[in-house]
Amino acid sequence: MEIFRTYDIRGKAPEDLNAEVVYKIGRAFALYAGSSEIIVGRDCRLSSESLHSAFVAGITDQGVDVIDIGLCSTPILYFASKRGPAAMVTASHMTREYNGVKFCGAGAFPVGADTGLLDIKKIFDKGKFPPAKRKGTVRTEDVLPAYVSHCLSFAKNIRPLTVVVDAGNGMGGLACAEIFKHLPCRLLPLFFEQDGSFPNHEANPLKPENLFDLQKAVKKNNADIGAAYDADCDRILFVDEKGQTVYGDTILGLLALEFLKTDKGATVLYDLRTSHAVPEAISLAGGKPERTVVGHALIKPLMKKRNAIFGGELSGHFYFRDNQFAESGDITLILMLKLLSEENKPLSKLVKPFKKYAHSGEINFEVADRELAMKKLRQTFPEAVVDMLDGITLTFDEWWFNARPSRNDPVLRVVVEAGTEKLMREKLALISEALHKI
User: Which residue in 47, 53, 92, 341 is the catalytic one?
Assistant: First the structure.
């Protein structure tokens, strides 16, 4: 498979990613980065330790020093990157047979297809690495304490709460356990042991079945909130005190209103899958909502350009100006605890204003030709107002939908929103029928 994707490198290990391939990637990144040292971390996947070693060897053989921060989450790596370019051996939320490499420049600047990843690919494909004058050195460093302190700088006015957190045996438990030592909250941890075989469930909170354990624990313990990280902790989703899922766009809306209480007129970015209730609420609060494409490598540069105070995606990525415009599941969780503490209301009540419309969430359709599928949808609804910002968005008087090809999977991702649940279901059925005819 093609391992160079839109945002990072991913593939099956060892079929697509093995020590030889990752060694060459390390040399290519060392040449691309043009820095005297590179920060490197890894997640807990069963293949990560060996791939990490090969990646580090490639960097040092190219004459570049390595700061090895070892086992860490992606947000920890982003935090460390304020000192220079960095790379993380991880496949994010993907299943255990996959692995990959995420890159960033200094200050967590994303390295994606439009911002340097294709340049790394060219060096990799050419396969000619000039000999280094010296071999780079490796030194280990523990950045967890500094990262925890940084996250705690967001922790204000938090009262005693009962919180269930599901780390899915990924990296989320690493910082979370330390953070809660400094909070007046009762933490009920689920699957905090790092285990790259992911024995309990996939570390992907977007799949409803992966939230069952969290929902059960929240209800059993009368918890105030539940949170679930993905495997590398750059995404987080929540359930309320009743065990009901609170989707990423609702979290975006809730936290945006909190930021706007003290930063009137600030810009907030939201991806185009987001419920229209969110930008409407941001505007009413005096903020400046700006609609974006999907994907962290595309959103973070725009965050910086607009000096946006906050941004987020339906998928559970949340970006903070005071975190180098990068995402952090840990900071998001802390801010949700702050929100619950200050509002002193259950989460189920706080989310009600954002249930103004019926939203389908993101639904995947397997289609052989995704471009043909989008063309077919446009022909099926000729009366629509058409927007091609990311995939195709068709807007009508009482409903809208977006369909876009996934950048990681061979599917077309669809979201539908309407004024009523009945209308949303009817329109989703029409879209489904049109796609199944292809």
Answer: 92
Residue 61's CATH number: 3.40.120.10
Tell me the whole-structure pTM to 2 decimals: 0.96
CA 74, 78, 79, 84: dihedral to nearest 10 degrees? 140
The answer to whether residues 325 and 418 belong to one domain is no
Cβ atoms of 65 and 35 within 8 Å: the answer is no
Same-domain check for residues 49 and 68 = yes
Same domain for 57 and 118?
yes
CA distances from 125 to 2, 47, 67, 282 (A): 12, 23, 26, 46
Question: Among this protein's residues, is 149 annotated catalytic?
Answer: no
Question: How many separate domains does the chain show?
Answer: 4
Q: Give a yes or no: residue 336 inside a domain.
A: no
Q: Which domain holds residue 39?
A: 9-142
Per-residue pLDDT reduced to its tens digit, 223-270: 999 999 999 999 999 999 999 999 999 999 999 999 999 999 999 999
| DSSP secondary structure, 202-265, as one string | -S-TTSGGGGHHHHHHHHHTT-SEEEEE-TTSS-EEEE-TTS-EE-HHHHHHHHHHHHHHHSTT
Q: What is the pLDDT of residues 285-294, one digit of tens each?
A: 999 999 999 9
Length of the chain: 438
324 Cβ contact list (under 8 Å, min separation 6): 78, 79, 81, 82, 107, 108
Q: Are residues 74 and 29 in the same domain?
A: yes
